[in-house]
Amino acid sequence: MKPMLESINLDANASLKIEAYLNDTYCESAGWHVHPEYEMVYVKNGAGQLNIGAKKRTYTNGVLVFLSGHIPHADFGNKDNEDNLEIVIQFKKEFLEEKLKVFPELGQIMELVKKSEHVLIFDEETHRALWDDFRKFENLDYQGKLINLLSVLDFLSKKGTYEQLFETFPMDSHRKDEIRRLEEIFEYVNNRYSQNISIGEISAQVGLTPNSFCRFFKKMTKRTFIGFVNEFRTGKAVEFFNESNSTVTDVMYRSGFNDPSYFSRQFKKYQGNTPSLYLKSRYGS
């Protein structure tokens, strides 16, 4: 079974995506999926199974995993214990090439990140040693999260003990081309979501006819392109609502919608509530 390509959207003010999930606020399963972003996952406790590529590994008391992009995998967490906490950190290769790489002092961290191509599973001692650092993430602002991640990477690059799951990870060249094409599509939407998005324009940009483009996108993501764009835009609308107590109309236009009733239907479909009720629940009447 081919993995679904997962779209990971970063907040406008962040170069990382860091999410914290408690046992009662567990993230919706992505199933068997792949994405170009690097990913580090810390699971506090409980037992589970890692399904990465063609390999499986069980863990019994939480786990810490670090893998590079383009590696198919299933969800890592579990719901065994009420006090469980799962921290998921994701960042793009540009975070390394445009930010970290300019500092020669971070050479050891860059070496560690390079090794994540083999998938790193850290031992229990390393996992326990970083508990205090990982539980901080959910209460930090953007700057604090970045600084805390660098601290975690510094520890892992100097003192972390790990197993490399793969000696090398084989990547089918055709599959790699498909993922690059999807990355280009996602980047197009990320840059154009507030404007008119033309299937004719994006399909020509990635070298497909409109019909072939729609079939390709559905095959790779198990969803329609229009559905993906609407979900992306409603996600942006949530970001704008969370930034400030803006009007529904203002957020509607900023996130790329032009029709109030259509915006309301799509927002409720993907976010579970109408824009006005979401705004009221966040800021009160």
TrEMBL record:
<dbReference type="InterPro" id="IPR014710">
    <property type="entry name" value="RmlC-like_jellyroll"/>
</dbReference>
<keyword id="KW-0805">Transcription regulation</keyword>
<dbReference type="GO" id="GO:0043565">
    <property type="term" value="F:sequence-specific DNA binding"/>
</dbReference>
<protein>
    <submittedName>
        <fullName>AraC family transcriptional regulator</fullName>
    </submittedName>
</protein>
<keyword id="KW-0238">DNA-binding</keyword>
<keyword id="KW-0804">Transcription</keyword>
<dbReference type="InterPro" id="IPR009057">
    <property type="entry name" value="Homeodomain-like_sf"/>
</dbReference>
<feature type="domain" description="HTH araC/xylS-type">
    <location>
        <begin position="183"/>
        <end position="281"/>
    </location>
</feature>
<dbReference type="GO" id="GO:0003700">
    <property type="term" value="F:DNA-binding transcription factor activity"/>
</dbReference>
<dbReference type="InterPro" id="IPR011051">
    <property type="entry name" value="RmlC_Cupin_sf"/>
</dbReference>
<dbReference type="InterPro" id="IPR018060">
    <property type="entry name" value="HTH_AraC"/>
</dbReference>
<dbReference type="InterPro" id="IPR020449">
    <property type="entry name" value="Tscrpt_reg_AraC-type_HTH"/>
</dbReference>
<dbReference type="Pfam" id="PF12833">
    <property type="entry name" value="HTH_18"/>
</dbReference>
